[in-house]
Amino acid sequence: MLDVRKLRLLRELAHRSTIAAVAEALSYTPSAVSQQLTALERETGVALLERTGRRVVLTPAAHALVAHTETILAALEQASADLAASRTVLTGALRIGAFPTAVRTILPPALVDLSRNHPDLELMVTELDPATVPDAIRTDALDIALLQEYDYVPAEPDPALETEHLLTETIYLAALDAEPLAARRDDSWILGTPGTLCHTMTVRACQAAGFTPRVRHHADDFSTVLALVSAGQGVALVPELGAMTRPPNVVLGALAARRTTHMAFRRGRGSHPGVVAARNALRASASAIGDGYS
To answer: Which residues form a coiled coil (predicted)?
Structure first.
């Protein structure tokens, strides 16, 4: 019978491409990962990896096995959820991941709701960039997290995850005047850290308007971004949640682009009582915030 732990390693290699990355993500040594994958090849009786120097590439048989692995892991998650549902009291750790603006806005009311209704739950919050959410959920570092996509940066589906829509926001151009985006070719720009979704979104939105932004500052906290705009240090694109406390001299110009936030959890885990409670609390909080700025 195939070993689920080895199958998880193969699945992560399909996502991360290198044995070193798999080892780092799952707290193994690279040699241990290699040994486990070699043992999996022996168990299956087929070649799963093609080795070229230091690189490994999954064979067609390996990709087929990864697809089966997603189904197997989802079934195990569903079994765990069914067992948890049989308990009368909701206990244990509930690990929630959220991006910074959600930690300040959506999450606090949800945490109050969860603490009041389920006092035996141990709530654990991690602030992280949405780009890292799929890996964190897939490797069981989080139970539920908020996943983002922008109109200019659509999210790639991950077969290990289930998602549920939570909130859609307008994207604003934040500046000291009301000039449109297309007129900002010569302005200085404030962008997020390279590699973040916010950075990619801004670059692509500007390119769609016919220019590449001239980056002057990098900042990931939208309060900091707006403070820099207020100080005349440049212009920026800011989503609705990040613009809720703008300085009085900052002008917000609504764009056609939107940011969408989804709740994400491992496939098969959506009916787990802890995840259900978190989904309900987050949905109620986001709805109240949406009513406040609509």
So the answer is: none
The CA distance from 35 to 52, in Å, is 17
Intervals of CATH 1.10.10.10 along the chain? 4-83
Contact assessment for residue 247 and residue 202, using Cβ atoms and an 8 Å cutoff: no
Measured CA distances, 264 to 99, 158, 278 (Å): 13, 10, 11
Report the candidate in 230, 223, 50, 198 with the shortest Cα–Cα distance to residue 215.
198
- What's at 288, amino acid-wise? A
Asked if the 4-83 domain carries CATH number 1.10.10.10, the reply is: yes
**Pair 260, 167: CB distance under 8 Å:** yes
Q: What is the CA radius of gyration of the chain?
A: 22
Instruction: Judge contact between 271 and 237, C-beta under 8 A.
Output: no
Phi, psi (rounded to 5 degrees) for 184: -100, 20
Angle at 144 between CA 139 and CA 145, to 5 degrees: 95
User: pTM for this structure?
Assistant: 0.85
How far is residue 210's CA from residue 253's CA, in Å, rounded to a whole number?
18
Non-local (6+) Cβ contacts of 189 within 8 A are 202, 206, 213, 214, 215, 216, 217, 234, 235, 236
For tokens 């389920």, what's the residue? 118
**Mean pLDDT per 10-residue section of the chain, whose length is 294 residues:** 90 90 90 92 92 84 94 94 88 94 94 96 94 91 94 88 95 97 97 92 96 97 96 97 94 96 96 96 91 50
Fold of 91-159+265-293: D-Maltodextrin-Binding Protein; domain 2 (3.40.190)
Distance CA 169, CA 260 (A): 6
